[in-house]
Amino acid sequence: KGGVDCILNESSNRNTAVCVGIQGKKRCMGDEASQSARSNIRQTFKVMKNLVGRNFDEPEVQAELARASFTGVKMEGGRIGVAVNYDDEDIVVPMEHILAMMLAKVNTIANEANNGVNIGDAVIAVPAWFTDAQRKGYASACKIAELNCLKLINESTAIALGYGIWKSAKKLFSETDPIHIMFIDIGYLSFTVSIADFIQEKLIMRSTRAERNVGGRNFDDIIVELMAAHFQSKTGIDVRNNKKAVLKLQVAAEKGKKQLSPNGVSEVNINVECLAEDMDLSYKLTKDVFEKACLPLIEKFEKPIVDCLAECGLSKSDIADVEVVGGTSRIGQVKLFLAKLMELKTDEVNNGLKTTMNADEAVARGAALQCAMESSRVKVKPFYIVDKLQYGIVVNTGEGATATGESKDDEDADGANASTLVEIYKAGDDYPKPGRRITFKGKTSDFSFSAAYSTDSAERLAPGTDTTIANYTVKVPASYANSEGYDVRVTFTIDKAMCLSVTGAQLMEPLPVTEEETKGDESKGDESKGDEAKEGEAAAAPAKRKFKKVDLVVETTQFGMTQTDVKNSIELEAKMAHADKILTETANKRNDLESYIYAMRDRVDGDLKAYASESESSTLKTDIMSAEEWLYGDGFDSTKRG
Predict the structure, then answer these.
(1) How far apart are CA 130 and CA 499, in angstroms?
(2) What are the helix (H) ranges across 395-543?
């Protein structure tokens, strides 16, 4: 209807907590899981974004698991799983499956808000710095959740899309001169800055830089540390290693941070009941103390902004507006620091920063718009998006092999520039981008090669990240084993998840030269000789050689869930979803019976009294009482049968 809105969940909230809880045979996701986290702390799972598609041994992963309340498990190949007790059985569930549970919950919320119609298409926003493995982890989660994900869009691009498409529709951009807008997203987990150019009906992402581990929860951690130190000084009890106590402090810290953010508020009182050993916490948080403690954290915002400007070749004065989003952008000290850094007029509203977008919903709205643009179900006015690849990619063809990087559309390229390392994409390349092709020379049998991130991209990766993207093996039919060897062309592309994929491999078998072609070449040679004698021009080039293209099988080995792993998770999800359905229907039947018991108890002595004798009424009352005793006794754990 010409707009985008966020639907309400079952708690009538626009924001849904990204949280999954498992208790016995019951699963709960979203707000319900968040609310029951204290009583189910060991089996409540959060921050999947930081763990999906990553290696268990990475330093950042270990730091994340150290602060988590659940138990992480190293799975086959180094993937991350979580230890879960489900229906009295100890199992290990891949982190991708935990994310899939949350995606299934999103599907349910949308289903209930749209009269039982399931989501047809979806687009999911992920951080721009996500690696190939992390993006594929999200793709696997979508398959497990049976969500038809059309594309993974970068969060920074989604924000820019939500900002620009409406202005473009109102003809607010120039047809030729781009306007430079900076977007600063300070979310719960990270800080991201991006610069985008806008012209009429077009968005061009110029650069995106980030601090992956600086976000709203780090500000919460500062308040948690202040409260923990205060509690220890008063009681002598250190609660920092007490998971339940820390959870209580985190909830109180987030609330206190929000209360302290508005202008004019200089202090807030934070109270936590029964923090530890039946002792309460009462702490007065002042803005001066909070801002002093936060300053080293806020100073980390400078480098991404400076790097982003440098990558674009722009100065601060070239930026037309600085748009800020994300819940943490509401902190006054943060806004003032960013405004001073960008040399804005700090005496203006919001210190000269722009807050025209919904701080909490900017990414979701942009992703929804991208979904409408990608889907065949919705019509959207033309708006072209040019994104950027965050990492360069090279192909290592192996020692002694020869290869040439060439355009997919260039059918005549040769192997003159042979090398064992071929750069097929550069960091900062536009996306979408045409496919790339590498030609391997003289192949008579199976051969292997690998793709990895380029050396100049390594500094953007998280410490300990494996730079190898995938290993490939091309299967050459045995019938070519005794041949002189043929060229094999392998085509690469960046798909809609912004992941590298091999779209095909072809063996180029030369076709025999026919007599007509030979005679044609000879006649061309004779004609050229005549021309040379008359005009002194060079001889004509020989005719193109023709080839038979034989499609080859390419086997891919890479980090992440295999097809078997995904299939196993789909089966487990179906089993869990069926159990959830039975539990929900049982609860509904239990409520129906309870309502019937209370209603009939009143009606026996009310509007139905005239229709029954005293003995009949007595018998019915006895049956109602027996049903009530059964319902709250042995029958409470009964399962719905029909």
Answers:
(1) 10
(2) 515-535
Contact (CB, 8 A) for 155 and 210: no
Go through 474-501 and write b for each residue having 16 or more CB atoms within 10 A of its CB, e for each that does not.
bebeeebeeeeebbbbbbbbbeebbbbb
| Cα separations in angstroms, 422 against 73, 451, 468, 501 | 37, 9, 14, 16
**Which residues lie closer than 8 Å to 273 by C-beta, 6 or more apart?**
280
**pTM reported for the whole predicted model:** 0.89
Report residue 258: phi and psi, to 5°: -65, -40
CB of 178 within 8 A of CB of 197? yes
- Strand 149-154 to strand 122-126: parallel, antiparallel, or no bridges (unpaired)? parallel
Integer Cα distance of 256 and 249 in angstroms: 10
- Quick one: angle between helices 362-374 and 155-169, nearest 10? 70
- In tens, the pLDDT along 117-155 reads 888 899 999 999 999 999 999 999 999 999 999 999 999
pLDDT of residue 414: 40
Neighbour-count burial for 228-238, b at 16+ CB within 10 Å, e otherwise: bebbeeeeeee
Bridge partners, residue 451, by sequence: 395, 470
List, in sequence order, every residue forming a beta bridge with 493; answer none if it has no partner.
501
As a whole number of angstroms, the distance between CA 430 and CA 197 comes to 13
CA distance 307 to 408: 33
**CA count, 13 A, side-chain hemisphere, 613:** 2
Q: Which residues contact 437 (CB under 8 A, 6 or more apart)?
A: 405, 406, 407, 408, 410, 413, 489, 490, 491, 492
CA 343 to chain centre: 33
Q: Check whether the bond before 432 is cis (ω within 30° of 0).
A: yes
| Closest by Cα among 559, 619, 549 to 55 | 559
Length of the chain: 642
User: Residue 409's pLDDT is what?
Assistant: 42
Average confidence (pLDDT) per 10 residues, the chain, 642 residues: 85 94 93 93 94 96 95 95 95 97 94 86 96 97 96 97 94 95 96 97 96 95 97 95 94 95 92 94 95 95 97 96 95 95 93 95 96 92 94 82 46 47 92 92 92 90 94 94 89 95 93 67 53 48 77 95 96 94 88 90 87 88 89 80 67
Phi, psi at 42, each rounded to 5°: -75, -20
- Side by side, the strands of the sheet bearing 405-407 are 405-407, 436-443, 486-494, 500-510, 547-557, 468-475, 447-453, 393-396, 421-425
For tokens 């992941």, the residue is 499
